[in-house]
Structures are given as structure tokens and as C-alpha cells.
Amino acid sequence: MYDGGKIIVGLIACLAFFLSPFIYDAGTAAKAPKPVLTEKAKEAGECVNSTPYMKAWHMHLLDTWRHTVVRNDERYYSPRREARMARLDKNLFDQWRHFVSDGARRYVPKEDKVYYKSLQETCLDCHSNKSKFCDECHNYMGVTPYCWDCHIQPEEKK
Amino acid sequence: MNFIVSILISLIAVSILVLIPWIGVGALDLRIIFGVVVPYAALLTFIAGIVVRVLDWARSPVPFRIPTTAGQQWSFPWVKHSRIDNPKGTVGVVVRMIFEVLLFRSLFRNTRLEYRRTEGGPKLDYEWEKWLWLAALVFHYSFLVIFLRHFRFFMEPIPGFVHLLESLDGFMQTGVLPLTGLGVPGVYLTDMLLMLAVTYLFVRRIYVPQTRYISLPQDYFPLFLILALGTSGILMRYFIRVDITAVKELVLGLIKFGPSTESLQGIGVIFYIHLFLISVLIAYFPFSKLMHFMGVFLSPTRNLSNNSRFVRHINPWNYPVKYHTYEEYEDEFRELMVEAGLPVEKQPQPSAEE
User: Per-residue pLDDT tens for A131-155?
Assistant: First the structure.
């Protein structure tokens, strides 16, 4: 073998690069953090949308809220109305999207409630435990949402 | 092969590869197969395939120096020589390889032959051709950045370089399309650049007649596969979102050899399509032209120094040649030669009897 030593060192270095997560992760926990619900949230029983939808789409929902509030002055969110409109094929794109990402289909809440579109006053009213409800997963996924650049972080009671 | 047939074959192959997990998970709910078995099998194939392929290359003998001499060789002190393009020793070779691997210098030197008619008559031109180099560079670096960005799914805690890459890559801080509902998450430049570059590489392949003529299904297939992979990733990030916490839990579980079946349930089909495509890509790697990512390091026209003029290289499989020198020949036939009147170098010894 010509330059066998060099080739084998290079091969090992290359494989070490590809297998580095296997070495790096040894000894750490694989379990994803579970968001903790406050008493108030548990009592309410349901959110503005289904859990699978909220898991994947909450950022999108907040962005749409922000946009519709700031640009269109639409300040109230009614899940039932949204669901009805979606069924009426109001937004084909939305329909398709919910169809393809299974587990995040349109959701009809038990209670016909109207929500005020506000991160601080509606979302954080129930989910007042930001460190346990938001931050753990965000840190786990390495995302740094810019919510708190403008919004005031809720004070947490210990 | 007709290029349309080649394109069709690859296109059908990639479509089938998209349909397999779509039906497998979407209709038949075979999550363990597509979420656990296939990725492991693909990774094993990838690793074993690379090792076998590289050791096979390493075993082939390279007795002689065959570097491309793209510059003046080192000779006399007053002749200026090209240290990188005609390297004399290890340093030159290392610099040349760095340029080759990181900056694709060979592609940069690419020219296009052009036949032109001028007033004086026909003229041959070597046209400056940098688009291939540019697209290749954009494609490879985008791919690298995207791969490294994915380490946020592979590693816990997430290392700092991933955050750095994400913030640099997403510095535009805009959504993927200027439409309500597509304002988040922030778009990554490399996502778009990769798709553009692969599309360019594909269009170039069918646009230039010479490359079209030499293109085979195995040239189109990786391009389509990477396009499908990129499309599924872009769809998953911007349009059809999945629960990425569950994705990370699954991936970390795979890495720690104990995937949780619980996390398999909560993930959308688009993720399984993405995972299946990358599994196919890495499993296909060792058997395809994609092995150039290791081959570039082992190309003897780049990684050898041009020292044939001052270092002797002996072919190791030279068999021992039987000599019969002129001296031995004369010793054997001296008497006869003298008798025949032929000149000899050594006069025969007069025997003592005469």
C-alpha cells in the first residue's frame, strides 16, 4: 500500500467527523423536555388549537396574529370560526398544509370561545411559566425566538 | 443513451423513492422501518462502503509520479518555477491539495473551446468559463453548511458553531415568501442557494451539448435526489411543519442506540420522506460518483509531487531480468571468435603447452 499510513489516518478522520455525534452524545440524556402546564392551563383544558398543531405551528400562529392585528386590526380569534372558514375552502394552501402535516389537522374546540390575540395577555395568561413551558424546548432545539425583544417577559412566581 | 430517457429514468427512480416512505408511513404506518431500520442500514452501508472503497483505492499501486504539470517545473535557479501547479515537494502538494479541496482550483481553471469567425477567417478561442466553478462552489459549501446546521438535531447540548452558522445563514431575518403566514421561521440563505446551484448544474448538463452527450442516468439521479431532498427539507421547514422536538428526540435516540417508539408517532410524513431520501443518498454514496468526496484526496494527478527528475522511482513489480553481458558472451565464444577472425576485447591466454 502506497502512503497507507496517511490514507488510513485520513479515513479515520473522515469517519470521526461523520460519527462525531455518536461520540459527543455519549452520556447525555436523549429525552426531550416536556412543557409543563400551569394549574390554570390544566383547568382551561384546551388551547386555541390542538396540541399537535400548537407543537408545530405556534410560531406561525403568533406571526399571523401579529400580522392581522397590526395590519388588519383583527383583534379577536375564534377557533370555531377559523375551522368553519377552513372547511369552506377559504384558503386552499392552508387546507393542503394541514392535510399533509398529519397530526395538525383543523381542530374544533369544545367551547365556542373568542380569544383576544395577544401573546402577553392571552398566551402568557395561562402559560405564565415561561422557563418551563417555552424555554426548555427552545433551548433543546437551539432556537432563540425574538418575542422578548419587544414583549415583556412574564414574572414567574416560584 | 438519449438524454431524455436518462432524465426520465432518474426522475422515475426519485419519484418512487419519494412514494415509498409516503405510502409506507402515510398509509401503512410502518414507522419503525422508516424511522429506525432504514437510517441504521443506510449509515452502515455508508461507513462500510467508504472504508471498502478507500482501502481498495489505497491498495492500487502508484509507482510513478503522474501529477498534472500545470506550470513550470523546478529546474535551474534562474528559471522561475510554479510552486503550486508543479509542486516539487510536500509543501507544494499540500498547498495544491488545499486549493483543490477547498476552492476547486481545477474547475476554476476550466476553459471552453470556442470556434469563432472573424474578418481574417476562423479562429479558435479558449473562453473564460467560471459559472461551473461558481455553481459547484456554492453547491458544496451550501451543502456543508446545511449539514452542519443539522447538528442541532444530532447533538445535545448544541455546540456553539451551530448557533453561529444559524445566525449567519439566517441573517436576512425574513420569511421564505412575503405572504402572511410565511413570515416565520426566518429563511436560510443556504437552502435557497443549494436549490439554485443544483438547478444550475442540472440545466447546464442538458444545455451544453457535450455534457448532455456524456450524461447518463447516474449523473442525473444524484441531482434529482438532492433536489428532492432539498425540497422536502424546505417544505418541512417553511410549509408543512412537524414537531421538531419529537424529531430531535428520535434522532438522539438513534444516535444513542435506543430510539423511542413514542417519538416516532408524533412526526409528520414529510419528515419520513426527508429521512428516507437522505438515507438513500448516503447508502448510494459509496457506489456512485459521489465518492469523489474521498477520491479528491486520492487523485494521483493532484496529490503527488513532480520529483521524477531527482528522485528515482522503481516499478515494484519489475521482475528480475536475466542478463547476458557482452563480457560473458565473449568468455563463452572467445576461441571461436578468434578462429573466425573476429576482434575480441580480451585476447585468449596462450596455453602453457604451445
Answer: 889 998 999 999 988 888 888 887 7
Which residues constitute the domain of residue A19?
A: 1-30
- In a mutational test of the B interface, the residue from A2, A17, A34, A74 whose CB has the highest number of chain B CBs within 10 Å is A2
> Does B270 lie at the interface with A, CB-CB under 8 angstroms?
yes
Query: Domain check: are A109 and A130 in the same one?
Result: yes
Q: What does the buried/exposed string (b/e) look like for A85-99 if buried means 16 or more CB atoms within 10 Å of the residue's CB?
A: ebeeeeeeeebebbe
Grid look-up 400548537 returns: A54
Q: Does B155 touch chain A (CB under 8 A)?
A: yes
Length of chain A: 158
pLDDT digits (tens, 9 = 90+) for A20-73: 999 988 877 768 888 888 888 888 888 888 888 888 888 888 988 888 899 999
Residue A102: predicted pLDDT: 47
Structural domains present in chain B: 3-303 (1.20.950.20)
A positions 53-92 inside 8 Å of B (CB) = 55-57, 59-60, 62-64, 67-68, 71
**Digit-coded pLDDT (tens) for B240-299:** 888 899 999 999 999 988 888 888 888 888 999 999 999 999 999 999 999 999 999 999
By Cβ distance, the residue of B155, B181, B243 closest to A21 is: B155
Q: Using CA atoms, how far apart are residues B284 and B286, in angstroms rounded to an integer? A: 6
Q: How confident is the model at residue A103 (pLDDT cuts 50, 70, 90)?
A: very low
Euclidean distance between CA atoms A62 and A48, whole angstroms: 11
Global pTM reads 0.88
B245 to chain A, minimum CA–CA distance in Å?
7
Least CA distance to B253: which residue of chain A?
A30
Instruction: Tell me which of A20-34, B25-39, B328-342 is least confident.
Output: A20-34
Q: Which residues pair with B125 in a beta bridge?
A: B114
Contact B297 A21 (CB under 8 A): no
> A157 in a domain, yes or no?
no
Residue B157 to residues A20, A138, A156, B243, B248: CA-CA distances in angstroms?
A: 13, 12, 25, 19, 12
> Does A79 share its domain with A24?
no
- Spatial distance between the Cα atoms of B9 and B201, rounded to a whole number of angstroms: 18
The pLDDT value given to residue A107: 67
User: What ipTM was estimated for this complex?
Assistant: 0.87
Residue A123, in any domain of the structure: yes
Same domain, A87 and A125: yes
State the Cα–Cα distance between residues A62 and A66, nearest whole angstrom: 6
